């Protein structure tokens, strides 16, 4: 074999070997249906995830306070009403009005029904805004404060995330202490739904150590 031919053969072999090594180093494309190992992401220690129930500070009854026969109802369950808003109209031209702002419960009466002053028309929330109450372990006390912003959503609608504001935190630490989070009126949640809350885990700032001074002589 001539020298030039030997050089050409050796060069070609080296090139093929290098190309094979490059292909070995490149990631292979998975075929449809093939198993792929997935590595779970490590939990973010800067965030806390807690669950709570959407509410509005409890509820209280709305009594009719008058007698008569119901002609028409003007409210729906879970509706937000303002104080003085019309709820029920009687044939006697009397009315039942909302006692204050809040979220209404289910209808407890029907059109055509005879009612007395003690008849419960519905219920109304004690608060005029939605809240989510969560509980955190004692060691989290001091990492969250009133006014902090948090993210809130419900499990079956995870893309509809809203911003809430921490409104109530106990003044002293306790086991599984409650934290109340206020939501806006337009939050797409219903009373009684299970909500998830994501908040920042900010360690409490330790009190500064007293400075040591020496008297100048």
Summed over residues and divided by their number, the pLDDT gives a mean of 78
SSE pattern: HEEEEEEEEEEEEEE
Order of strands, widest sheet: 1-10-13-12-11-14
Helix content: 10-25%
Main sheet?
6 strands, antiparallel, barrel
Query: What's the number of helices?
Result: 1
Rounded Rg? 33 Å
Beta-strand portion reads 35-45%
| Low-pLDDT stretches | 4-10, 12-45
Termini separation (Å)? 98 Å
Q: Based on helices, strands and strand pairing, what is the structural class?
A: mainly beta
Task: Outline the fold blueprint.
Layout (H helix, E strand, L loop, with lengths): L2 H23 L21 E9 L3 E5 L4 E6 L6 E2 L4 E5 L4 E3 L4 E2 L10 E2 L4 E6 L5 E6 L12 E6 L2 E12 L8 E6 L11 E7 L17
Antiparallel strand pairs: 1-10, 1-14, 2-9, 3-5, 3-8, 4-7, 5-6, 10-13, 11-12, 11-14, 12-13
Written description of the protein model:
The protein has one helix at about 5-25; strands at about 45-55, 60-65, 70-75, 80, 85-90, 95, 100-105, 115, 120-125, 130-135, 150-155, 155-170, 175-180, 195-200. The protein is mainly beta and about 220 residues long. β11 (about 150-155) and β12 form a beta hairpin. The N and C termini lie far apart (about 100 Å).
Structural features:
11% helix; single chain; six-stranded antiparallel β-barrel; mainly beta; 217 residues
Write a compact overview of the structure shown.
With 217 residues, this protein is mainly β. It has one helix at residues 3-25, and strands at 47-55, 59-63, 68-73, 80-81, 86-90, 95-97, 102-103, 114-115, 120-125, 131-136, 149-154, 157-168, 177-182, 194-200. The strands form four sheets. It has a six-stranded antiparallel β-barrel with strand order 1-10-13-12-11-14. Strands 6-5-3-8 form a four-stranded antiparallel β-sheet, with no helix packed on it. A two-stranded antiparallel sheet has the order 2-9.
